[in-house]
Every structure is written in C-alpha cells, then in structure tokens.
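Quick one:
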Amino acid sequence: MTSKIIEIAGAGPAGLAAAITLAQAGREVVVHEAYKEVGHRFGSHYQDFQGLENWTTEQDVLQLFERQGLTTDFAMLACRQGTLFDAKGRQYHAQSDQPLFYMVERGPGSTTLDSALLRQTQALGVDVRFNSRLRQIQNQGIMAAGPKAADAVSAGYHFSTDMADGYWAICDDNLAPKGYAYLLIMNGVGTVKSCMFEDFKQEKIYVRRTVSAFETLVNLEMKDPKFHGGIGNFYVPDTAYAGMHPVVGEQAGFQDTLWGFGMRLVIASGQLAARSLLTGENYDTLWQRELKPQMDTSVVNRCLFSLLGNRGYSWFLGKQSRRDVRAALRRQYQPSVLKRVLHPWAKRRYLSQRQ
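Output:
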C-alpha cells in the first residue's frame, strides 16, 4: 500500500469524518458518493431530524467535536426538557441540567450535519465525487456505504407547523413495537415517526396510530406532510475489515442497539479507521477497545427493554422522570459487572438481520 491517495466509499458522517481526519494529517483523499448529494437517503423536500446524544460522556458532545477537529456549524436545538407518554396517555416530564441530546437536521440541506461535514471536508482540499460508485478500492481505502439490513424501521412524516420547538415520545407497543414513537419540532418544521423494532410489514398501521396519538396528546398540527421512512442496522461484528480495508459506520453495523442514537459511534468509527491508516494500528483493536464496550452494553439494554412491554415502559418512564435523565442514561449506557454477566444471554437472544 504505497499510494499517496486514500479512497473512501461513501460520504455519510462516518466517511466524511474519516476524510477530515486524514486530510488534517496531510493525506490526499478522494471520497466517492454514489448519489448526487450528501444525505440523499433522508430526502430533500424536508430535512429529517435526529438526536445527537449527549449522555454517554461527561463532557458535552459539541466540545468533544471541537476538540477532535470536527465542525459544529450545523443547525441544532439543545434539548434539556421533553415530554414522554406511556400507553395509557399518562405524561412524564424528562429534564436534565445539561442537554440530553442535540436535535440536528440530516439530509442535503445547507444547515444539516451532513452538509456541514461536507463543507469542512472540501475546505481541507478533499476531492468529493458525487454520482461516483466506488466498486473496488485499489490501494488504501475505507468503506462507508451505509446500512445493509433493517433491524429497525422509522416511518412517518416530515411537515411544516406552527407548533413550538420541542420533543415528545410515546412508549407503546401498539404504536411502535419494542421501540418508541416520537415527535421532533425545530424552527417551524417537524417530523413524527414510529420507530419499530419488529412487525415491519404493518408500518402504515403503526404510523397512522402514531399520528392519531400525537394529535390527541399534544394537538399535533401538520402542514404539507410528506411520508418518509428509513432503516437502522444494529450489529456488533467480529471484525470490521473487508479484506484489508476498514469498514465504518452503519455499513459495519455500528449503532446504538437500544434506541438508535448511534451518530457518535458512526463518526468515531470513521475517525478510528483513519487513525489506523495513519499510524498502522489495527483497526479492529482500536474500535473493539474504544467502541465495543458501549455497543455490547447497548445490546443488553435492547434485550432488557424488549422484555418490558407497556406496563414495564410505564415503570421505566416513571423512574426516569424523578431524576436528571442525562445522568441516569449515562449510567444505563456504561458497562458494568451486571451488563457483562448478561451479555452472553443478550448476544444469543438478539439476532441482527445481518446474521
């Protein structure tokens, strides 16, 4: 591997984070994106909203981005307070002193996280080629082509609205089996989704129920709604190499198996793959040391959550509403002796569609 050029297949957050890290180290990088723009899978009529979680580390995620040399020049809403509901419509207040997560835009628009990373990448001199599908990496390279299977489906609507900014969620298997329904609003635009972890063939039924529930509970008002859906792939691989090339992001299966708050894992995997090419360190060694403990814990969390059912969700929501939810979730997401004991059971119980 003597070529000076490093090729990256995919211009999602993982691929762009890898490109930024390599370019900052002085390497020549070419990114190949199969579609005409970044964030293509999120659609372009309205941008999708997602949560950049802020609970797995004590330090704020935006400070960590800046320390790691990543841009924060994207639209965001710091979410400290939200409203949660159980299957009976009982309301629970979620609050934290520091932002629980940052609501961010995804897609090709000018204010999205995807576009911000693209601007930084291009400003560093990286050659980003759109409508270019890289079918074979000849020299050094990284594979970052996105999810390969559906372990969760998120379906619903993007819309404009006069409702105030905020976030709302419902834990009810009748709306989102083994998952949750959510409503996110920022700057006059919203997204309402059922995030389901099974029974995908009934997604339209669950979406109708989700919209109806939010209309009843919070007076949801949608203008010009556009249907939208996406998938998530949750898989802890034995190796994240394809031949000699690191595989990053959701193409490798890096995600938060509990609720799908995996953007930080995706971005970190891209940075670690770049580091492996720069230093010669083994990529599997890097991600297994820095990412796998959290991923293994999230598999245990997913299996425990899937056992709760609607009565269990009510207990869980009541418990979380009596404390700083950011601190509570940080404890839940950290490896522990109990989680390590439960991991072999969870690994047998949880089977990704990749398997």
